[in-house]
Amino acid sequence: MTRTLTLLRHAKSAWPDGVPDLERPLGERGRRDAPAVGRWLNENVPDLSLVVCSPALRARQTWDLVSAELATQPEVRQHAKIYYGPLLEVVRGLPPEVASAMLVGHNPDMEDLAEHLTGTHTTFKTSTVAVVRTDLEWSDAGPNWAELIMTATPRG
């Protein structure tokens, strides 16, 4: 089975005073850009079946705005390791029957994971999406496990 892993860095967040990092919301630009990510995913990754999202508010808000643009709704789970790490454990723990999954998280972890899995450096600005593909099992994820298929930074 060919597996597709999509990595999404959350949209642009706000930095309100006194708000803990986990509770930082999206900023105005992030609220504009996230729906554009959803439209891009709808055209380029229409078979998404599982999303694993960081528990951080800005990541959850990004996903809410992205998912509103999708033709079909994948299963969604939150996982603390998307925020705290290590992301590789999340990938290795994806269900074997899932062919297309997405992680919604943060930098520098997204850049590091994409480079680790593909051997190709990708810069993850806010709202950047990278799509990688492999014929290997999720549980085998590691160095050069997948090929980078495409990247995009949709803007609203």
Tell me what you see in this structure:
The protein has 156 residues and is of the alpha/beta class. The protein has one domain (3-152): Phosphoglycerate mutase-like (Rossmann fold). It is 31% helix and 21% strand. The protein is built from five helices and six strands, in the order βαβαβααβαββ. It has helices at residues 28-44, 57-67, 80-84, 87-92, 109-118; strands at residues 3-9, 50-53, 75-78, 100-105, 129-134, 147-152. Strands 3-2-4-1-5-6 form a six-stranded mixed sheet, sandwiched between helices. β2 (50-53), α2 and β3 form a beta-alpha-beta unit. It is globular, with a radius of gyration of 14 Å. The N and C termini lie far apart (34 Å).
Structural class: alpha/beta
Task: Tell me the CATH architecture.
Answer: 3-Layer(aba) Sandwich
CATH topology: Rossmann fold
- Computed over alpha carbons, the radius of gyration is 14 Å
Low-confidence residue ranges: none
The overall strand count is 6
Q: What can be said about the biggest beta sheet?
A: 6 strands, mixed
Mean pLDDT: 97
Shape: globular
Q: How many angstroms does the end-to-end distance come to?
A: 34 Å
- Strand content is 15-25%
The string of secondary-structure elements, in order, is EHEHEHHEHEE
CATH class: Alpha Beta
So, the CATH homologous superfamily? Phosphoglycerate mutase-like
Q: What spatial order of strands do you see in the largest sheet?
A: 3-2-4-1-5-6
- Domains counted in the coordinates: how many? 1
Q: Helical element count?
A: 5
Give the helix proportion (percent range). 25-40%
